[in-house]
Amino acid sequence: MIVYDKQYDVIVVGAGHAGCEAALAAARMGCSTLMLTINLDAIALMSCNPAIGGLAKGHLVKEIDALGGEMGRNIDATGIQFRILNTKKGPAVRASRAQADKQQYRLRMKQVMEQQDNLDLKQGEATALYLEDGAVAGIDTRGGVRYAGKTVVLTTGTFMRGLIHIGLVHYPGGRAGDLPSIGLSDSLNAYGFEVGRLKTGTPARLDGRTIDFKRLEPQYGDERPIPFSFSNTSIEQPQVPCHIAYTNPRSHEIIRSGLDRSPLYAGIIEGIGPRYCPSIEDKVVRFPEKDRHQTFLEPEGRDTVEVYPSGMSTSLPIDIQWAFYRSIEGLENVEIMRPAYAIEYDYVNPIQLHASLETKLVRNLYHAGQINGTSGYEEAAAQGLMAGINAGLRVQGKEPLVLGRSEAYIGVMIDDLVTLGTKEPYRMFTSRAEYRLLLREDNADLRLREKGHAVGLVPDNLWNGFVAKKELVASELERLGKLRLSPSAAGEELLEEWQLSGMQNAISYEQLLRRPDFTCQELARIYPEIMELPETIREQLEIQIKYKGYIDRQLEQVDRSAKLEGTPIPADMDYSGLLGLSTEVREKLAKFRPDTLGQASRIPGVTPAGITILSIALKARSAK
Amino acid sequence: MYVRDTIAAISTPVGEGGIGIVRISGPSSLAIAHSIFKMKSDGGLKSHRFSYGEIVVPATGDVLDESMAVYMKAPNSYTREDVVEIQCHGGTLVVSKILSLVVGEGARLAEPGEFTKRAFLNGRIDLVQAEAIMDVIASKTDASLSLAQHQREGLLSKRIETVKEGILYALAYVEALVDFPEDDVDVAVDTDVLARVRPALDELDALISGFEEGRVIRDGVSVVIAGKPNVGKSSLLNTLLKEKRAIVTAVPGTTRDLIEEVVNINGLPVKLLDTAGIRDSEDQVEQEGVRLTLERIPRADLVLFVVDGSGAFTEEDAAILEAVGTKPMIAVVNKGDLPTVAVLPDSIHAVAVSISTATGSGIPELRKAIADAFMHGKAVDGREFVAVSKARHRDALLKSRFSLETFIGNLEAGFTMELLAIDLRDALAAVGEVTGETTADDVLDRIFSSFCIGK
User: Fold this and answer.
1) H/E stretch holding B317
2) Of B183, B184, B443, the CB nearest to A601
3) Buried b (16+ CB within 10 A) or exposed e, A566-577
4) Does residue A547 contact residue A437 with C-beta atoms inside 8 Å?
5) Strand ranges (DSSP E) for B90-200?
């Protein structure tokens, strides 16, 4: 091995959505950082759908942004259609989603990386970890170069032993058009990591010139697009529509006729695919009673005719793909530009990670993204950011940043991964969060800005803006609680309209806003000054006041579990010496090695009695 | 010091007892007690002093029961928090009503073992004691668990499973609507979901009433025979006992003492209480009997109000009726073998059974009426009703039912999905507490969940 003569603080392997955030975070924290990738033209490439956000994923993007990550700003700059989902539901489950211009997205991210101080970008394939004294000390590459680093973040995506399937044809690849990463997972295996196999898939890319859009229902973005990033106030670029199409019974017949040549049903694919993102053949087989399935035809960019048909991923043979896509109304003459395919890849059991995303087996080694069994750009980026931050903090000799389940979706996701592991590609859902009402998109900055600032990822100008916002919200909340509507001042007419006739005592503006349909706009009739506040502030006031009851209820639950979450279990805990534990519980605890009592309580199979014994043992231990 | 919200629970064993105790612990204990407990003397509850007063429904001012209350100021209490214990008459209904008043005033229903948990958290129980407690938990869950318990719990689990299925179905839909707004999840929430939730609610109702019925079978019920002198109360008792026990003569006031017998009525253990005829009397011994009778009525689970069908409904009858008040009651029209004269007033909302202690006619119907009053028409089969035998289970089921009812109410009121999901999750978590599959996040809640409530 030729040893490169520069010693890095942080080496990030991979330049996908996880790798980019990890490398940017480390470099911005002042660490000398190397990002190593198989293909420098594929930085932040959207390998599957050209979109960012959606339910729970939009939440993740806002959290990344609040902490000082790049994803929100990148999609704001390169999005071509913005929508807020679930507007008819409550604020906690409203989510932002945007179509991206796929090429612009990756180019802008590459530009940001290239202009980042402390960050080297290099093309090369990592083939093995280099360890010194049980801690990672660098990375060996196919080109025979060893890069030395104090910490390493692995973000390998679908590349480790990637295997592409189209019908019964299969060949190695990290993504259509890219080489796989060979050797690294063997290296991990050799150090004791449990390497498993997962599968995911992507639909064909269609030629937009051969789609009859006139016969399809268009879906437009929001009239007034709202940015993801807390540092942006508006989206200026024009927006483009998506279109909705449907499969029909004939499509399903075609799919069934090809099942005998499906690698999934022929048993060739061993990896487990995501249940929430099934291939079209899966949908047809599992829901035979449905006579149509919906697809959104998403443009891949402004300067390309390529179209992404969402929900139509498949690994069926190419001749079936031709016939199937053409069976859809409006797509009768469609030309496939890139075939749909399934891909199998290696991942590492995430229960072998601490909540900081550092591995339990190899010190200074961090894993983020699909290597941890997740799926999705946003999930990857969020982990990348946390791994980058924690690698940076390690270099600086500081304690890791771990977000709680009540603080962020990022916290929920990482806790789920490291305490439960995953058997299928893990995707974020709002229903995974027990404190869903607290974890809203609108308050991501209130929840996390401070933490981002503390680690050095939120520059002063953004921080000052945030502090001003936070103070404004607090002072206005207080004011609304104090200002009162007296029956005499309001006038009979208004009282009647607000159904307050006969009101005896003055009621506060806060009480008025607590009513379900009462908005700031309505309050402006007696308190016009409120409309002078920025819209984000008014939104914050309405949400915090209207949902106070529910929010308080959740805060109480958080409070009750705080003690458990805050009780650490020493890394050297000897479970074999604990009297009274059943064999099963003992084995589970020894296998998962939870970091806190809270984690231990969530491990399946660990009984309440087991937790009791453990907590008493911990008390006894600390008493010594 | 671990002071959180204020909790409350019934802390006497469930069933017929002389007294029932509702325990309240937490910072609002005293305020809550004062809002429902009206003392005979002024000045409010004093720490570690018993006070006499009445339980009053704050909304209506109705008096629920007379009672005693004791306030134990923190830290000199079981939990080391402010604690108030309200003692009342021991009928299940009264105690439950007081508990719901307390909850209505802002207390939260205590988790199983939560008083003990607080005692632990506030440092009243030390580690050694906690370890001893562990042994208890271990022995309960492992070796000492009897086969009968296994069977019982197996039966319960099966029924709980159907409840769970209904809630899960509803939750799955609500969550799908939240998390997949772009997919065409085609379901009419208010019809499809309600169609699944309602049966779950019914099953919960059945399980909860099964608990009451289980208690009834295990502990029996107390039935008071009341009526003016010489309407045939003792004859009725003897008929039900099928043997002469009380002295029966035609001279009014023959029964001077309370006579208590346990009889088997259609499989139900019934503690029958014959009383002195209630009327104004100058005979001191008899007066004593009358007093005892009046005293016992409030504690009975059921009153058999006996009237003489061959005579008119008199003021004396009306006075007794008043003493019975709102107690569950069966009107027994005796002397059905003679021409019927008495007409029961319309104000009696009770099952009326016509009998003759002389001929024995109507007695099977009366037996059935008594059993029905407790078993709601079901056959008395112990195996059916022991399913929910632990107060902890009953409380969890009550919580689940409350959450489901809130869910239905909120659904009809047009609440948004993510709020509805909270109610469903609460309902599911409560059911999970019974089967032990709860994913409750607070480990200490789990630690003490093996304890019976209110200890």
Assistant:
1) helix B315-324
2) B443
3) ebebeeebebee
4) yes
5) 108-109
**A534: which 2 tokens?**
């920025």
CA-CA distance, A217 to A246, in Å (whole number)? 10
Q: What is the 3-state secondary structure (H, E, C) of B25-58?
A: ECCCHHHHHHHHEEECCCCCCCECCEEEEEEECC
Show Cβ contacts of residue B188 under 8 Å, excluding neighbours closer than 6 positions.
none
Within 10 angstroms of residue A557's Cβ, the number of other Cβ atoms is 17
Work out the minimum CA distance from A183 to partner chain B, whole angstroms: 38
* Strand stretches in B288-350, DSSP E: 302-308, 329-334
Give the orientation angle of helix A583-592 with respect to helix A608-623, to 10 degrees.
Answer: 60
Phi, psi of A310 (to 5 degrees): -65, 150
The CATH number of the structural domain formed by B220-383 is: 3.40.50.300
**Chain A neighbors of B416, CB-CB under 8 A:** 88-90, 93
All domains of chain A in start order, with CATH: 2-199+345-455 (3.50.50.60), 205-344 (2.40.30.260), 471-554 (1.10.10.1800), 566-623 (1.10.150.570)
Beta bridge mates, B332: B306, B353
Per-residue pLDDT tens over the stretch A28-76: 999 999 999 999 999 999 999 999 999 999 999 999 999 999 999 999 9
Annotated domain spans of chain B: 220-383
Nearest residue to B72 via CA among B46, B110, B99, B92 = B46
pLDDT band at A185 (very low <50, low <70, confident <90, very high): very high
Instruction: Evaluate whether A554 touches A438 at the Cβ level (below 8 Å).
Output: yes
Nearest CA in chain A to B142: A582
Rounded to a whole number of angstroms, the distance from the CA of A136 to the nearest CA of chain B is 35
Burial class (CB in 10 A: 0-12, 13-18, 19+), A191: middle
Tell the residue number behind the tokens 């030629």, with chain if given: A207
**Distance in angstroms (rounded) separating the CA atoms of residues A24 and A65:** 13
A601-611, pLDDT tens digit by residue?
A: 888 777 666 77
**Nearest partner of A341 among A172, A204, A208, judged by Cα:** A204
B410 min Cα distance to partner chain A (Å)? 13
Chain B residues whose C-beta sits inside 8 Å of any chain A C-beta: 4-5, 127, 130-131, 134, 137-138, 141, 175, 177-184, 416-419, 421-422, 425, 436, 439, 441-447, 449-450
Contact between chains at A616 and B449 (C-beta distance less than 8 A): no
Alpha-carbon span A119 to B57, nearest angstrom: 72
Q: Looking at B180-232, list the stretches that DSSP marks H as alpha helix, in order from N- to C-terminal side.
A: 194-219
Q: Indicate the DSSP class of residue A279.
A: -
Residue B2's closest chain A neighbor by CA?
A560
List chain B pLDDT tens, one digit each, 455 residues.
Answer: 344 789 998 877 655 566 788 899 999 999 999 999 988 777 788 888 888 888 888 888 888 888 889 999 988 888 888 999 998 876 667 787 888 888 888 888 887 667 777 776 676 654 434 434 433 433 333 323 333 344 445 666 777 888 888 888 788 777 777 777 766 555 555 677 888 889 999 988 888 877 666 666 656 678 888 888 778 887 888 888 764 444 444 444 444 455 666 677 776 777 777 765 555 555 555 555 566 667 777 778 888 888 888 888 888 788 788 878 778 888 888 876 776 666 677 767 777 888 888 888 888 888 888 888 877 655 544 434 344 545 667 778 888 999 999 899 888 888 888 888 888 888 888 887 766 554 433 322 322 332 222 22
Instruction: Retrieve residue A71's tokens.
Output: 């994803």
Please, which residues have CB within 8 angstroms of residue A406's CB and are 6 or more apart in sequence?
Answer: A435, A438, A439, A554, A558, A561
Query: At residue A161, what is the residue type?
Result: R
- Return the ∠ at Cα B86 (arms to B82 and B92), rounded to 5°: 135
Please name the amino acid found at residue A545.
Answer: I
